[in-house]
């Protein structure tokens, strides 16, 4: 379990939002977040997937999430991303605008969170959360209709739990992961039933 941070994520995001440079890259964000990188980056990359996105958008967010959650799983100290991702502009050059929209919601959520519990936010708990987060990130990479919201919510909960060392938020992440598995099973069963129906209907 890591020690809670004195500076809240919303304060860091406010500073980033005040940088009106439209060429801010993912690497700039990683450096600004410092040791808060894992939880904060997971939140920033997962949150947009909660709403319906244009085709292919979830893949753009999912690739760095795979790298970040895998490193959380193996308990790497600092976030590492390939240079191509580090040089990528975040939000298509509209990062300050997007952060200004995000900060009020982060402030509201932070009021509900506090350091509590030691099980899910222990060192082992964080590694297991990295494993579950990696699974959710991989699901985001796949073009599965209707399967984005649950893993995105799970990742956001894990991120908030990591940031605030809150077992309750981490439990929300595990609930979202379980919901993701259930949704995948239901989609598989639905797809299998449709395929069987069409096969019988089209059979000579």
Automatic annotation (TrEMBL):
It comes from the Bacteria. This is Exopolysaccharide biosynthesis protein. It comes from Taklimakanibacter albus.
